[in-house]
Amino acid sequence: MPPKSVAASRTTLTELMIPSYANFGGKIHGGILLSLMDKVAFACASKHSGAYCVTVSVEGVNFRQAVEVGELVSLMASVNYVGRTSMVIGIKVIAENVRTGTVKHTNTSYFTMVATDDDHKPTEVPPLLLETPDDTRRFMEAMKRKELKETYKEEFDNEKSRIRVEDGGLDILKKERCIVGYDNSDSNDFND
Ligand SMILES: CC(C)(COP(=O)(O)OP(=O)(O)OC[C@H]1O[C@@H](n2cnc3c(N)ncnc32)[C@H](O)[C@@H]1OP(=O)(O)O)[C@@H](O)C(=O)NCCC(=O)NCCS
Description:
Blueprint: E1 4-5, H1 6-9, E2 11-16, H2 30-49, E3 52-59, E4 72-82, E5 86-96, E6 103-116, E7 128-129, H3 133-160
Parallel strand pairs: 1-7
Antiparallel strand pairs: 2-4, 3-6, 4-5, 5-6
Protein backbone atom coordinates (compact mmCIF):
# COMPACT_ATOMS: atom_id res chain seq x y z
CA MET A 1 0.00 0.00 0.00
CA PRO A 2 1.63 3.35 -0.99
CA PRO A 3 1.96 5.97 1.77
CA LYS A 4 -0.22 9.06 1.79
CA SER A 5 0.90 12.45 3.06
CA VAL A 6 -0.65 14.29 6.01
CA ALA A 7 -1.41 17.19 3.64
CA ALA A 8 -3.48 14.97 1.33
CA SER A 9 -6.21 14.43 3.93
CA ARG A 10 -6.01 17.68 5.93
CA THR A 11 -9.59 18.91 6.35
CA THR A 12 -11.16 22.10 7.71
CA LEU A 13 -14.81 22.41 8.65
CA THR A 14 -16.17 25.89 9.32
CA GLU A 15 -19.59 26.62 10.74
CA LEU A 16 -21.41 29.69 12.02
CA MET A 17 -22.77 29.27 15.56
CA ILE A 18 -26.48 29.97 15.29
CA PRO A 19 -28.86 30.64 18.25
CA SER A 20 -30.37 27.13 18.14
CA TYR A 21 -26.93 25.72 19.09
CA ALA A 22 -26.96 27.58 22.42
CA ASN A 23 -27.59 26.17 25.90
CA PHE A 24 -29.68 27.86 28.59
CA GLY A 25 -26.70 30.02 29.52
CA GLY A 26 -26.51 31.42 25.99
CA LYS A 27 -23.23 29.66 25.13
CA ILE A 28 -22.76 26.95 22.52
CA HIS A 29 -23.56 23.39 23.69
CA GLY A 30 -20.49 21.20 24.14
CA GLY A 31 -22.38 18.47 22.28
CA ILE A 32 -22.62 20.64 19.14
CA LEU A 33 -18.84 21.06 19.15
CA LEU A 34 -18.33 17.32 19.76
CA SER A 35 -20.60 16.51 16.84
CA LEU A 36 -18.64 18.86 14.55
CA MET A 37 -15.37 17.31 15.75
CA ASP A 38 -16.70 13.84 14.96
CA LYS A 39 -17.71 14.98 11.46
CA VAL A 40 -14.35 16.50 10.61
CA ALA A 41 -12.52 13.47 12.06
CA PHE A 42 -14.67 11.20 9.91
CA ALA A 43 -13.96 13.24 6.76
CA CYS A 44 -10.20 13.39 7.40
CA ALA A 45 -9.89 9.67 8.27
CA SER A 46 -12.03 8.63 5.30
CA LYS A 47 -9.88 10.75 2.96
CA HIS A 48 -6.69 9.11 4.24
CA SER A 49 -7.99 5.55 4.25
CA GLY A 50 -10.42 5.67 1.33
CA ALA A 51 -12.74 3.64 3.58
CA TYR A 52 -15.77 4.11 5.80
CA CYS A 53 -14.45 5.06 9.24
CA VAL A 54 -15.90 4.74 12.73
CA THR A 55 -14.96 6.54 15.95
CA VAL A 56 -13.47 4.28 18.65
CA SER A 57 -12.02 6.73 21.12
CA VAL A 58 -12.00 10.44 21.95
CA GLU A 59 -9.27 12.08 24.00
CA GLY A 60 -8.34 15.52 25.20
CA VAL A 61 -11.77 17.11 25.10
CA ASN A 62 -11.35 20.04 27.45
CA PHE A 63 -13.32 23.14 26.62
CA ARG A 64 -10.92 25.92 27.58
CA GLN A 65 -13.15 28.84 26.64
CA ALA A 66 -16.87 29.16 25.92
CA VAL A 67 -17.99 29.59 22.32
CA GLU A 68 -20.55 32.33 21.73
CA VAL A 69 -23.53 32.54 19.39
CA GLY A 70 -22.47 34.39 16.21
CA GLU A 71 -18.89 33.13 16.29
CA LEU A 72 -17.42 31.32 13.32
CA VAL A 73 -15.97 28.00 14.45
CA SER A 74 -13.28 26.28 12.40
CA LEU A 75 -12.14 22.74 13.07
CA MET A 76 -8.81 21.82 11.50
CA ALA A 77 -8.15 18.10 11.29
CA SER A 78 -5.13 16.12 10.21
CA VAL A 79 -3.91 12.55 10.53
CA ASN A 80 -1.37 12.52 13.36
CA TYR A 81 -0.70 8.79 13.50
CA VAL A 82 -1.64 5.56 11.76
CA GLY A 83 -1.57 2.02 13.10
CA ARG A 84 -2.64 -0.97 11.01
CA THR A 85 -6.36 -0.13 10.81
CA SER A 86 -6.62 2.88 13.13
CA MET A 87 -5.77 6.54 12.69
CA VAL A 88 -5.40 9.28 15.28
CA ILE A 89 -6.91 12.50 14.00
CA GLY A 90 -5.77 15.68 15.74
CA ILE A 91 -8.39 18.42 15.71
CA LYS A 92 -7.70 22.04 16.57
CA VAL A 93 -10.82 24.10 17.21
CA ILE A 94 -10.80 27.89 16.93
CA ALA A 95 -13.65 30.38 17.24
CA GLU A 96 -13.57 33.74 15.48
CA ASN A 97 -15.58 36.81 16.38
CA VAL A 98 -16.55 37.90 12.87
CA ARG A 99 -17.00 41.57 13.80
CA THR A 100 -13.74 42.12 15.67
CA GLY A 101 -11.69 39.39 13.98
CA THR A 102 -10.56 38.10 17.41
CA VAL A 103 -9.66 34.42 17.28
CA LYS A 104 -9.57 32.09 20.30
CA HIS A 105 -8.30 28.54 20.50
CA THR A 106 -11.00 26.58 22.30
CA ASN A 107 -9.51 23.08 22.32
CA THR A 108 -7.33 20.47 20.67
CA SER A 109 -8.63 16.92 20.77
CA TYR A 110 -7.66 13.53 19.40
CA PHE A 111 -10.13 11.15 17.80
CA THR A 112 -9.11 7.55 17.07
CA MET A 113 -10.91 6.35 13.96
CA VAL A 114 -10.88 2.83 12.50
CA ALA A 115 -11.27 2.12 8.78
CA THR A 116 -13.80 -0.60 8.05
CA ASP A 117 -14.60 -2.74 5.02
CA ASP A 118 -17.97 -3.73 3.55
CA ASP A 119 -18.40 -6.33 6.32
CA HIS A 120 -17.78 -3.63 8.99
CA LYS A 121 -14.44 -5.30 9.86
CA PRO A 122 -11.28 -3.23 10.45
CA THR A 123 -9.27 -2.84 7.25
CA GLU A 124 -5.67 -1.75 6.67
CA VAL A 125 -4.92 1.93 6.07
CA PRO A 126 -2.04 3.48 4.05
CA PRO A 127 1.16 4.36 5.96
CA LEU A 128 1.64 8.04 6.70
CA LEU A 129 4.17 10.05 4.71
CA LEU A 130 5.73 12.57 7.12
CA GLU A 131 6.76 15.57 5.04
CA THR A 132 7.57 18.12 7.75
CA PRO A 133 9.12 18.17 11.24
CA ASP A 134 5.64 19.05 12.60
CA ASP A 135 4.15 15.92 10.98
CA THR A 136 6.91 13.88 12.60
CA ARG A 137 6.52 15.52 16.02
CA ARG A 138 2.76 14.88 16.00
CA PHE A 139 3.31 11.24 15.01
CA MET A 140 5.81 10.75 17.85
CA GLU A 141 3.56 12.54 20.36
CA ALA A 142 0.69 10.22 19.36
CA MET A 143 2.95 7.19 19.92
CA LYS A 144 3.73 8.48 23.41
CA ARG A 145 0.05 9.22 24.14
CA LYS A 146 -0.85 5.66 23.08
CA GLU A 147 1.89 4.17 25.26
CA LEU A 148 0.85 6.25 28.30
CA LYS A 149 -2.82 5.37 27.76
CA GLU A 150 -1.92 1.67 27.91
CA THR A 151 0.14 2.20 31.07
CA TYR A 152 -2.66 4.23 32.63
CA LYS A 153 -5.21 1.50 31.82
CA GLU A 154 -3.02 -1.18 33.42
CA GLU A 155 -2.39 0.96 36.51
CA PHE A 156 -6.04 1.92 36.85
CA ASP A 157 -7.24 -1.70 36.51
CA ASN A 158 -4.74 -2.64 39.19
CA GLU A 159 -5.80 0.19 41.53
CA LYS A 160 -9.47 -0.47 40.85
CA SER A 161 -9.15 -4.04 42.04
CA ARG A 162 -7.83 -2.67 45.38
CA ILE A 163 -10.80 -0.38 46.02
CA ARG A 164 -12.87 -1.62 48.95
CA VAL A 165 -16.21 -0.22 50.03
CA GLU A 166 -16.11 -2.08 53.35
CA ASP A 167 -13.72 -2.88 56.23
CA GLY A 168 -12.19 0.57 56.62
CA GLY A 169 -11.78 1.06 52.87
CA LEU A 170 -13.94 4.16 53.19
CA ASP A 171 -11.23 6.00 55.17
CA ILE A 172 -9.95 7.63 51.99
CA LEU A 173 -13.27 9.46 51.70
CA LYS A 174 -12.69 11.37 54.94
CA LYS A 175 -11.33 14.49 53.27
CA GLU A 176 -13.75 14.33 50.34
CA ARG A 177 -16.98 16.30 50.04
CA CYS A 178 -19.30 13.32 50.30
CA ILE A 179 -21.29 11.54 52.98
CA VAL A 180 -21.97 7.82 53.02
CA GLY A 181 -25.72 7.87 53.58
CA TYR A 182 -26.52 4.18 53.63
CA ASP A 183 -25.95 1.20 55.87
CA ASN A 184 -22.49 0.11 54.75
CA SER A 185 -23.00 -3.50 55.79
CA ASP A 186 -25.33 -4.01 52.79
CA SER A 187 -23.60 -2.65 49.67
CA ASN A 188 -25.21 -3.07 46.25
CA ASP A 189 -23.11 -2.56 43.13
CA PHE A 190 -24.79 -2.36 39.76
CA ASN A 191 -21.76 -1.28 37.71
CA ASP A 192 -19.38 -4.23 37.83
C1 LIG B 1 -14.07 -0.12 15.55
C2 LIG B 1 -14.37 -1.60 15.56
C3 LIG B 1 -14.85 -2.05 14.18
C4 LIG B 1 -13.04 -2.30 15.93
O1 LIG B 1 -13.29 -3.67 16.00
P1 LIG B 1 -12.35 -4.63 16.87
O2 LIG B 1 -12.82 -5.99 16.69
O3 LIG B 1 -12.22 -4.06 18.25
O4 LIG B 1 -10.98 -4.49 16.12
P2 LIG B 1 -9.50 -4.51 16.69
O5 LIG B 1 -9.41 -5.02 18.10
O6 LIG B 1 -8.73 -5.21 15.61
O7 LIG B 1 -9.10 -2.98 16.71
C5 LIG B 1 -8.99 -2.26 15.51
C6 LIG B 1 -8.08 -1.08 15.76
O8 LIG B 1 -8.72 -0.19 16.65
C7 LIG B 1 -7.83 0.12 17.72
N1 LIG B 1 -8.67 0.36 18.91
C8 LIG B 1 -9.67 -0.41 19.38
N2 LIG B 1 -10.18 0.14 20.48
C9 LIG B 1 -9.50 1.28 20.71
C10 LIG B 1 -9.54 2.31 21.70
N3 LIG B 1 -10.41 2.29 22.70
N4 LIG B 1 -8.68 3.33 21.60
C11 LIG B 1 -7.79 3.41 20.61
N5 LIG B 1 -7.68 2.46 19.62
C12 LIG B 1 -8.52 1.42 19.69
C13 LIG B 1 -6.97 -1.11 17.85
O9 LIG B 1 -5.75 -0.79 18.52
C14 LIG B 1 -6.74 -1.44 16.40
O10 LIG B 1 -5.78 -0.56 15.85
P3 LIG B 1 -4.64 -1.01 14.80
O11 LIG B 1 -5.29 -1.92 13.79
O12 LIG B 1 -4.20 0.26 14.18
O13 LIG B 1 -3.59 -1.69 15.59
C15 LIG B 1 -15.46 -1.96 16.63
O14 LIG B 1 -14.91 -1.76 17.90
C16 LIG B 1 -16.70 -1.12 16.47
O15 LIG B 1 -17.48 -1.31 15.56
N6 LIG B 1 -16.92 -0.17 17.41
C17 LIG B 1 -18.07 0.73 17.37
C18 LIG B 1 -17.70 1.99 16.60
C19 LIG B 1 -18.86 2.95 16.54
O16 LIG B 1 -19.99 2.58 16.34
N7 LIG B 1 -18.55 4.21 16.73
C20 LIG B 1 -19.53 5.26 16.69
C21 LIG B 1 -19.55 6.01 17.95
S1 LIG B 1 -20.61 5.26 19.17
